[in-house]
């Protein structure tokens, strides 16, 4: 799904993608550029490999100060945001439930939940004023399983999904749509590292089903990016407060 599929309504739209330099985030950035949007990506690391014309802001979203600095930089560069993709997140370090420290819980909540809450609070007021905008929160298809050994991650993402539905109701009267995307197993460097670490930790525990999803392959970053593009485009103009699971049929609906 690229610009010619009807998402040309993004021409001239201003977009921010957090975690936008690798994996799913980088694929989302490419799709938005193809659809005509003016895009800024953020990440903790460098900006290597971004398409021509894409802006970059280094940001650590685990702190309120980092989120505020990102919002200030983006508003200064773009003057406002029409599309916000809250993609930054991470599942590690893996721990059994009884080994998760308060610090690990807080880090997961800060990165996978509160970063989106804080950034939305700073960037959606402009959408409300313009009575137009689209927000997408990237969650995880693993949330319904509450799968160990990353309970702190799935719990934070579950909070994100609940918040996403509530924010959608709050912003709907202002013409601002809020949806979520929940990726399943996706072939990214981060995903591979996650599965390797997970495998080592559960070796001594119950066996894990590692067969392919029903559609016969892992997801590609572009599979998730296509879903995000749909949710921020005019093709989903009557869709808000929903969570689109993109997992090849692996997890229960």
UniProtKB/TrEMBL annotation:
Example GO molecular function: oxidoreductase activity
InterPro entries in UniProt: NAD(P)-bd_dom_sf, Sc_DH/Rdtase_CS, SDR_fam
Keywords for this protein: Oxidoreductase
SUPFAM superfamilies: NAD(P)-binding Rossmann-fold domains
Domain of life from the UniProt record: Bacteria
This protein's record includes keyword Oxidoreductase: yes
Record family assignment: Belongs to the short-chain dehydrogenases/reductases (SDR) family.
PANTHER family: OXIDOREDUCTASE, SHORT-CHAIN DEHYDROGENASE/REDUCTASE FAMILY (AFU_ORTHOLOGUE AFUA_5G02870) (PTHR43639), SHORT-CHAIN DEHYDROGENASE_REDUCTASE FAMILY PROTEIN (PTHR43639:SF1)
UniProt cross-references to NCBIfam families, sorted A to Z: PRK06523.1 (NF005095)
Protein name, UniProt field: Short-chain dehydrogenase
Species this protein is from: Streptomyces griseoviridis
